[in-house]
Amino acid sequence: MAEAVAMSEQMNFGDVRQRAISARNVCLKIPSTNGSSFSMNQSINFQFPSNQFNSFYDMAKTGFLLTLTNSAGANGGANDAYVGGISGAYSIIDRLTITSAGQTLCDIQQYGALVDALLTGETGKSYNMNTMANMSGAGSAGASKVGKVVAEAGANPLTVFLPLIACSLANTQPQRLFPAFSASPIDVRVYLNSTAQAFVSAGTPVVTISDCQLLTNMTIVSPEAGRMIDSMVGGQYRMLYTDYRTASAVVTGTGAATNSVATLGFSMSSLDRVIWIARSSDSQTQANQSIGSRSTASCSEFQLFVGGKAYPDVAVKLSGTAGVAGYGAEAMAQYLISSGSLHNFNHESQFGVTIDFNADGDKYALVDADGATEAKTGSFVAAVGLDSMPSSENLFSGVTTTGQVVQMKHEYSALPAKNFDLTYYGQFTGQLLLDVRGSRIWSVSI
Predict the structure, then answer these.
(1) SS3 for 208?
(2) Is pTM, for the whole model, over 0.90?
């Protein structure tokens, strides 16, 4: 029996790229199904067509194409409306739901705030100032407070493309093409934020959203290839995915040390991590950055509890002087650990970088980030990781919370005398199943 011999890839002449199965790719523009023009606080509905046999949607090439127009009267620019600096026009989205035949495939409240936090932690200023600025309206000067302007009096409407991210359809593990041949269509609903939450303005902008389209790519294989794929999976198209559920709480400060415990209500078989953010009541006004200005609220330590068991075993401490660079060092380390990027020395973020690229760690440590100025637009975001084997691509190993009480405990050294909105995002692994030899309807297991 011949021994196995290891050799360099440069000498492996047997490893030759194979010809792909017969297929073609088409780009689809799907208009909204419930109208052509929308005001803030309304919702925009889209629908992925069903019964498209031998066809698959590419969710990695999918997003929303929208045009924003500001009809407020001319007022010397005072009625101009600015989208988010980090997340661009994602600031207009309050909630994202995805359903099919009564099954909830995704339901994320405070979706725009989640995207802003993720883009802060997972992308760099170069991406923000180039790709995001041109595609989604982020701050081309690298600003965190404001991005592109939707000018008053209907001048220069802003057209943006928002890739579909941070949801079940986009986050299959590993990335899969999405079968388009279910019996029922997939409905996507985008709930719009209030004007005060979505935009920064010194006046009273009146913004409408029009020309709403869902852009996606579809791969169509030959009938023979379709039958081969179906035979390989036995008619059952099963995919793991990563998604988020949202919980919220309010903590009221008096300027003194205090604590709070928030019951989150997350019930899933594999909770992978919990992200949390705090936003000052002062930031929730028209003139200030509302969704992307995050505070520490003088939090001195935090810890997650599932069924009474603590995660991590020792509370995460924010030590040092509140509001001064270095205050959130351990919290930032725990966030990077939860995202699997602590040892990734090429990992980029926008936690503490100013417009001119000078380091400004105080932005991450701001106790009361009211979003009134660039310097007061805080970047703090924290997380607790729960994956026991986070480096494995073939296992999901989060904590089971079904039937368990899930709580986050916070200690505050001197909580400012105002309200802070706490938002928690439970990132979890679930399963989607389409049985084409049964009901041909998507089923969901969380």
Answers:
(1) strand
(2) yes
